[in-house]
Amino acid sequence: MCRRLNIKMNQSIQTNQLNPYAIQLCTLGRWIAQRQWLPAGSGLFSVRTSEHSALFTAPDKDKNELSPADLFSYDWTRQNQSDTAIAIHQFLYQQSPQHKVILQTHGLQATVFSRLIKADQHLFVGYELQNVVAVSEPQRSCCPLAILDPQATELTLQELHQRFERGTLAHAFLIRGHGLYVWGDTIDNAKRHLEAWQFLIGCELERIKASCHFN
């Protein structure tokens, strides 16, 4: 039994090492880690591999050292998932076949911003980079970033469903104190959305700081 299990694990590792999407995801993970958006091995990335499955990064793995061998496959038609972070990824994939890559990070500015803003969303106005993350024409001039409170998995998924129904998610949302989630239809687009939202959040923190100083 142990021998068969080891063979299966080795075959999975070899498959990941040859998977171009796994390689790209690991390269992106190292790029994100170098920007200090993944302290203490935090964060969770995934890339869709089929209609009902995705490759995920191993928990607590230092993303500076990420390799395809550190990824594991998850099929939500065969496995019950109690982990909130993985359940959120699954939910996002189920919302649209266009969702191909999901990134969860724990950048300093995004985490502080998530606790500073008390409303359930924050509106970004007047930034050119809104065009990168806007999912509708109105969001190009007034772009919302949803902010959820940490709660039980089922309640979080219910709230996300409501936000999708209202069209108030622009490729991202924050969970207070837990990090920033972004997604895209390619690895490159997910990277662009992450970088854009990190910049927009940084701009708003600086604006809020300047406003407090002058008042």
Q: Could you characterize what this model shows?
A:
By secondary structure, the chain is an alpha+beta fold. It has one domain: L-fuculose-1-phosphate Aldolase, CATH 3.40.225.10. 46% of the residues lie in helices and 20% in strands. The chain contains seven helices and eight strands, in the order H-H-E-E-E-H-E-H-E-H-E-H-E-E-H. An eight-stranded mixed sheet has the order 3-2-1-4-8-7-6-5, with helices on both faces. Strand 1 and strand 2 form a beta hairpin. Helix 3 runs parallel beside helix 6. It is globular and about 55 Å long.
Radius of gyration: 18 Å
Tertiary shape: globular
Overall average pLDDT:
89
Unreliable stretches (pLDDT < 50, length at least 5) are: 1-11
Oligomerization:
single chain
Largest sheet geometry? 8 strands, mixed
Top CATH class? Alpha Beta
The sequence of SSEs as H and E is HHEEEHEHEHEHEEH
Could you outline the blueprint of secondary structure elements for this entry?
Layout: H1 2-18, H2 20-34, E1 44-50, E2 53-57, E3 71-75, H3 84-95, E4 101-105, H4 108-116, E5 121-125, H5 130-133, E6 142-148, H6 153-166, E7 172-175, E8 179-184, H7 187-214
Parallel strand pairs: 6-7
Antiparallel strand pairs: 1-2, 1-4, 2-3, 4-8, 5-6, 7-8
